[in-house]
Amino acid sequence: MPPGSIRGSSLGPGRVGTPGMAPGTAMSRAGSAPLSPHHRHTGSQGTHGHENIDVNDNIKVVVRVRPPTEREIQNRDDCAVVVDDAMHMQVAFPTQQGPSTRRFAFHGCLAPDSSQSDVLHACGITQLLDAALSGFHATIFAYGQTGSGKTFTMSGREERIGLEDYAGDTDDGIVTRAALYLFEQIGRRRDGYTYNLRASYCEIYNEGLYDLLKFTQQQLAVRWDSGKGFYVPDLYVRSCNTLNDMMQVISRGMAHRRMGSHELNLESSRSHSIMTIHCDATPVNSQNPEQGVRYGKVSFVDLAGSERLRDTKSTGDSALKETSSINRSLFTLGKVISALADNQPGLHVPYRDSKLTKLLMDSLGGSALALMIACCSPSATHVEETLSTLSYATRAKNIRNTPFVQMDPKDAMIAALQREVHLLRSENSYLRDQVAASTLPSGMATPLESGRAMSLTSQLEDMGAAGQGLGPGFGSPDQQEALFGGDASHMGPQMGVAMFGSRPSSNLGPSRGPPELEPSQSVPDPVPVPSNSVPSIFGAPTSATVNLAAQAMNGHGSSGGGVSPTELAKKLAEAQRLVVRFSRENERLSSTNEQLRVRRLVVDNDYKGALDEVDVLRGRLESLESAFLQSADSSSILTQVLREHEPELLAAHLSKASLAGMAMRHPLEQSQQISPSPSPGVAFHSAAGPPPASSTVSQKNADEEGRSMTRTRIHLENCW
Ligand SMILES: Nc1ncnc2c1ncn2[C@@H]1O[C@H](COP(=O)(O)OP(=O)(O)OP(=O)(O)O)[C@@H](O)[C@H]1O
User: What's the rounded mean pLDDT across residues 430-440?
Assistant: First the structure.
């Protein structure tokens, strides 16, 4: 047994992947180990399984160990790789001190018997596809040594797709399954959007970039745009209205890929290929201020495998050139992965060192959701390459991306203006109501104020309030400040001006706009906007997302996808007019309200003065009352008072008393008699006895309000 191989596990059908497995033991147990029931599960799992993936924005890494090839079986190669469970694996390798093993953990580990359908679900690919339909950029790339199963994983037995009788296959790879899934989804979705799929296919061969759909020897240029990052302006992007259209793109692209044959793989890819499906989602109701056109996409990257000439036994200049070019670009990819994984501030990431890393910039440390499928052979013969692959895969796990929804900047701007108009309109109707009612409680927030606060909070929580920014000239600075919480740093300049700072972004072609873009025709840039459809397992956007979104909003500019510039300009002008109109109207209503407030204040002051006067009068009355009660000559005072105020009453009383021949009683008794119906609280009571329940004292306590005092005064006047 060669040093480093796993004891008793030479490769052969049914003998891969279980440590210490006796020769001839069936591999089914080992093979089924990596996939727990829920990992094998398909649609009904809700999130399509893969609960093991952390909810964060890091690149997800899944390792797939392929079954042994005929050659490996014939050579009775030993098995060096074992998948322990859904997330762990170990590799046995020789060292100078003797055999050793190393354990690895990934987001997913797929054993050799995993099916192509398992890959789709275990890797959470359906979630990535859903995310692409919701406006995210997603990248799936296969990495590994030559012959390790990258092309099989991505494309299946690709040669079959072009056949006349092709109708799907159990060996279908991720790309064809993804195309099917996307068409199924857009047929099923009832979310207020219409979807259009477009596709491009290119390859990087010997550091040259070629279009696989319009295959010519003409190399395509990779350009840099501060808004879009690296992109390929002349890449053909074909509109795919049906699954059949998409299959044609796939088979045509695959057919044009440069393949070669060598010792390790009879059909070895000699290039890195990138197939991209663009998912444009246009809102059905363009008036909905929350919706704008979203530009999601998903890229499938099948990398050429690293190879050693002594292993491939390739000869000839062209083979040497191919191998060295493949290895060089993979070496740069390794450096990029290492730099990003180290995550040291200010550290240079050498994206520009190869076309591959330029085009993968968005996927590695950028704004895309990314999945790396690291493929490896189970054979001890290739253990060195396997260890190298797994060590890169381990590093890649540390790469943090900041995904956000990609939306046309002008759509975002229109959406923001429409939201502003909506808020102004509610404020307007609120102010009108208040003016009509002539009262506005001070300190109460108007709908606009609270609406803005709410809008800001939800925008920030959702993802990327910055993306909603109005450029200067849209609304007043106050309005912008209210909308953006005072931080104007993420306001983009006025539309049409190229912006976008240094956001890492790489569009693998004219990612938006009509399928056949003219080279000179610019394409809209991605702009982050709030979205509530954030993919779950690939991580909800974090504050970093918002920051990046804000950064993104700082710079971009190009024409809108799907909407003509004239239409856009009209929409913007209309929204702007409305904002200005409502702003003016609301200013006027606010000032009317202010005047009403002042008038109200004056009335309140008058009212308060009247109450004070009532208080003074009440004091006087009380002192008069007590003087009256204590006075020895109270009867004469009463007679005097009655004479002045109630002469008729006094006359009637006197005549009645004289008729009855009665002696004059105590004036108080008389007053009680003559008072027709003393009202509660009337201040007449005997000085000798306690006051009745409805006395002045109780009245005083009850009548704190001036209103009551006024009533008391009226009663007293009546009695007098
Ligand atoms: N999971 C698998 N199940 C069955 N066969 C597989 C599997 N993975 C790979 N193979 C087979 O192994 C061989 C090599 O696979 P493939 O061509 O996909 O490797 P590769 O990594 O793309 O190599 P290269 O970098 O040279 O293009 C092919 O014959 C393929 O059919």
Answer: 70
Using the mean position of ligand 1's atoms as its centre, give its distance from the Cα of residue 351 in Å.
28
91 confidence band (pLDDT: 50, 70, 90): very high
In angstroms, the CA 199 to CA 293 distance is 18
Q: Domain check: are 109 and 243 in the same one?
A: no
- What's the mean pLDDT in 106-116? 94
- Asked whether residue 446 carries a pLDDT value surpassing 80, the answer given is no
Length of the chain equals 720
- Residue 603 CB-density burial (10 A; 0-12 exposed, 13-18 middle, 19+ buried): exposed
Pocket flag, ligand 1, residue 149 (CB < 6 Å): yes
Residue 209 predicted with pLDDT over 60: yes
User: Does the annotation list 151 as a binding residue?
Assistant: yes
**Is 146 known to sit in a ligand binding site?**
yes
Closest CA to 508 of 232, 236, 120, 296: 232
Does residue 390 belong to any structural domain of this protein?
A: no
User: 634-645 vs 647-659: helix axis angle to the nearest 10?
Assistant: 120
Non-local (6+) Cβ contacts of 665 within 8 A are none
pLDDT score, position 190: 87
Cα distance between residue 8 and residue 15, in whole Å: 9
Helix (H) or strand (E) holding 116: helix 116-122
Same-domain status, 568 and 627 = no
Cβ pair 202, 508 in contact under 8 A: yes
Residues 6+ positions from 518 with CB-CB distance below 8 Å: none
pLDDT band at 262 (very low <50, low <70, confident <90, very high): low
Task: Mark which of 469, 492, 523 sits at the end of a domain.
Answer: 523
Q: Residue 85's domain spans which residues?
A: 1-123+373-383
How confident is the model over 349-358, as a mean pLDDT? Answer: 92
For residue 304 and ligand 1, the question of a CB distance below 6 A is answered with yes
How many domains is the chain partitioned into structurally?
A: 4
Please tell me which residue, 553 or 175, carries the higher pLDDT value: 175
Model confidence pLDDT, tens digit, residues 386-409: 999 999 899 888 888 777 777 766
**Does 681 carry a binding-site annotation?**
no
Minimal CA–CA distance to 247: which of 155, 130, 149? 155
In the chain, what is the greatest distance between 2 CA atoms, to the nearest angstrom? 154
Distance CA 539, CA 411 (A): 25
| CA atoms of 632 and 628, how far apart (whole Å) | 9
Measured distance between the N- and C-terminal CA atoms of the chain, rounded to whole angstroms: 128
Provide the mean pLDDT of the chain: 68
The answer to which of 429-438, 453-462, 584-593 has the lowest mean pLDDT is 453-462
Q: Which two tokens stand for residue 246?
A: 């998409």
Which long-range contacts link 647-650 to residues 24+ away (Cβ below 8 Å)? 649/674
Question: What is the per-residue pLDDT for 411?
Answer: 66
pLDDT in tens, 662-682: 444 444 444 444 444 443 333
pLDDT at 364: 86
Q: Is the CB of residue 50 below 6 angstroms from any atom belonging to ligand 1?
A: no
Write down which residue in 472, 489, 523 finishes a domain: 523
Q: Could you identify the atom of ligand 1 that is nearest to the CA of residue 64?
A: 1
CA neighbor of 88 nearest in space, from 78, 69, 103, 71 = 103
Strands of 293-348, DSSP E: 294-302
